[in-house]
Write a structure and sequence with these properties.
343 residues; alpha/beta; Rossmann fold
Length: 343
């Protein structure tokens, strides 16, 4: 744990705040909720349960105990409703905005719905924050805004080149935050996530993220598909580092009306072929059917980027961010959770 993060957690325990976490029943949102409750915070959670899971909340609240559960209030509603966001933001000091339509393929199929949720919903959130006097908004952006940049590692000074409606919607959020935060008296931080993975990530559905999708498929002996030749690389980031980045961003020393965007990643690269071999090697002892198991290669999908590798220098300087969990440690934690959950 970084010294700056230790200081932030100690400060939170000493002076609890009221937080709003959107997408609270999702993968990232539920992990944020778990940490906030563990450190004595009061949390309003908003979710429409389109992709969020009530089981995630049940697990977090059970672990938090009666005292932690009493500090949590759930609102069921949608970002496209300005009224529910005004209700959710009442008395809140910090918003951690995670709710979104996050699938690139789904955005290619239905760009209008992606825009309504990710852009119109975000504008509704900013307006609610302004009206209710919220001092800071931390929101999830994405490495997808960089597109297929030929310059690696990817840094925040690069010209964005979005390749999908999903990526475009996240870039639009950044533009709106930059334009509206000063006028609204908000300070805002956008976190460009790079391929987050970890416990509670849903392996179900055609648009599931690659690590939980492959873990579930390999344990069952089902088909594992790689789009492209497997040389595609990703900067996989364990969820513990994303939780850290959000809490650091909530406490970063910014002035009123300032907006910053930073990468949140490990700052490394893993190929899809390499990932497949790591997962197979770790599962083979418990799943003998994986001996000699091979993936099936398909054509590249529209909107997918080929290579991803982040610079995290700006996150270090602006937030004090230092990753606390390595890729292999994050993978082991994820595997252990899958075993316990029986996913």
């Amino acid at each position: 744990m970084s010294s700056r993060y230790e200081q932030v957690l100690a400060g939170m325990r000493a002076q609890p705040k009221r937080w709003l976490v959107t997408g609270v029943a999702g993968f990232i949102g539920s992990n944020l909720l778990e940490t906030l409750l563990a450190h004595g915070q009061f949390v309003v959670g908003l979710d429409n349960f389109t992709t969020g899971r009530r089981l995630n909340l049940e697990a977090v609240l059970t672990a938090a105990g009666p005292d932690g559960a009493a500090r949590f209030h759930l609102l069921e509603g949608d970002l496209r409703s300005p009224e529910i966001l005004l209700q959710a933001a009442q008395g809140v000091e910090v918003i951690l905005h995670q709710a979104a339509q996050v699938s690139v393929p789904a955005s290619m199929e239905d760009p209008l719905t992606t825009h309504e949720i990710n852009v119109t919903g975000f504008l509704n959130l900013l307006r609610a924050a302004q009206r209710e006097g919220v001092r800071r908004v931390v929101y999830a952006s994405s490495c997808a805004v960089y597109g297929d940049s030929i310059e690696l590692p990817l840094h925040e000074g690069l010209l964005p080149r979005p390749l999908s409606p999903y990526a475009s919607s996240k870039l639009a959020d950044e533009a709106y935050a930059s334009a509206l935060a000063p006028a609204a008296g908000l300070d805002a931080l956008g976190l460009r996530y790079f391929n987050v993975f970890g416990p509670r990530q849903d392996p179900k559905g055609v648009y599931a993220a690659v690590i939980p999708l492959w873990l579930a498929a390999m344990r069952r002996g089902d088909l594992v598909q790689i789009f492209g030749d497997g040389s595609t690389t990703r900067d996989f980031c364990p969820i513990a580092n994303v939780v850290q980045a959000n809490l650091l961003a909530a406490h970063a020393p910014l002035g009123p009306g300032r907006h910053e965007v930073v990468n949140v990643a490990l700052g490394g690269q893993t190929s899809l072929n390499g990932l497949f071999e790591m997962l197979r090697a770790r599962l083979e002892k418990r799943c003998p059917h994986l001996a000699g198991f091979r993936p099936v290669y398909r054509e590249f999908r529209a909107g997918d980027i080929r290579h991803s590798h982040a610079s995290i220098a700006k996150a270090g300087s602006v937030l004090g961010y230092v990753p606390t969990q390595s890729f292999t440690d994050g993978l082991e934690a994820t595997l252990a959770w899958f075993e316990r959950a029986g996913s």
